[in-house]
Amino acid sequence: MGIYILRRLALIIPTLVGIMLLNFIIVQAAPGGPVEQLIAEMEGHGGSALARAAGGDTGGEVASASSGDTRGSRGLPPELLAEIEKMYGFDKPAPERFLKMLKDYATFDFGDSFFRDRSVVELILDKMPVSISLGLWSTLVIYLISIPLGIRKAVHDGSRFDVWTSSAIVVGYAIPGFLFAILLIVLFAGGSYFDWFPLRGLTSSNFEQLNWYQKIADYFWHLALPVTANVIGGFATLTLLTKNSFLDEIGKQYVVTARAKGLEEKQVLYGHVFRNAMLIVIASLPGVLVSLFFTGSLLIEVIFSLDGLGLLGFEAALNRDYPVIFGTLFIFTLMGLVLKLISDITYMLVDPRIDFESREGA
């Protein structure tokens, strides 16, 4: 196992570099960078933007830009254009900027945001609790629902319970999470019917004045609708995965033998089948976490005005805030690769018969 882990850790570095290079090239070719935005602002607002260009300092040399010939730069002196490009770090050629970015990222130095006057690390740490809250509680609820439901569907395969729950799962899977979020707002957050839940934020404005149990209640009151919207989009796949995994194990010879020995059905199910059937479910956990933390929560955070990583990345993309874009991309990719490695290690711990080292050497 040790050799396999070392190999996987060594592969993380070229994988990260490849992903960062690909995205750097894509963003390099995209029009409308921060230089163009500042030029447009200067032409529209005059003096304040000129002062910002002359004295501002963003510290963001890690980004890429399409800052060559800007359409709106014809009325500005070349010296000012050169100063703007230097301010954003675009006075250097693209390969040099990319190599500097890799060098800085190796020490987790992501630079400063172009438009927020804060470092990227501070922004990520500030937004992380919201995304962790939404992702962890959604994952917990998904597993608490999906595993028992999947097991029962496998045990009662073909029954009326199995049929009607499958119908409900298909309907839930067909509805995108963000559409269900809008429906929840319309029904329960003052949209058209009931005004039972808050529409924005993770806590109330008077949160600090509440006692400890009121803080807990307020926290979960704000999370109720976003977590529900996340769960609807995530539990269907895991439920069917659990059911199919258990059905596959139930049909194997060792289960027939255990039943022939006179073991009770619960002993067969939870003493023999459960461990083997849960392998694939455990392996899916890192993928679920990555999806809920970094991708699936984007629209949910936007809809419910939750100031987390998803909303941070979305606004950074709109504003062409390249240090934030690349910093969050680096963190997300690194965490995804590490979680995938943890998934493989968990596989081997749960079932020692699995040997990834021998597979790689084959």
From TrEMBL:
Topology of the protein relative to the lipid bilayer: Multi-pass membrane protein
GO cellular component: plasma membrane
Predominant subcellular localization, coarse grouping: membrane
Family annotation (CDD domains): TM_PBP2
Top-rank lineage group of the source organism: Bacteria
SUPFAM superfamilies given in the database record: MetI-like (SSF161098)
GO biological process: microcin transport; transmembrane transport
Family as reported in the entry's similarity comment: Belongs to the binding-protein-dependent transport system permease family.
Protein name stated in the entry: Inner membrane ABC transporter permease protein YejB
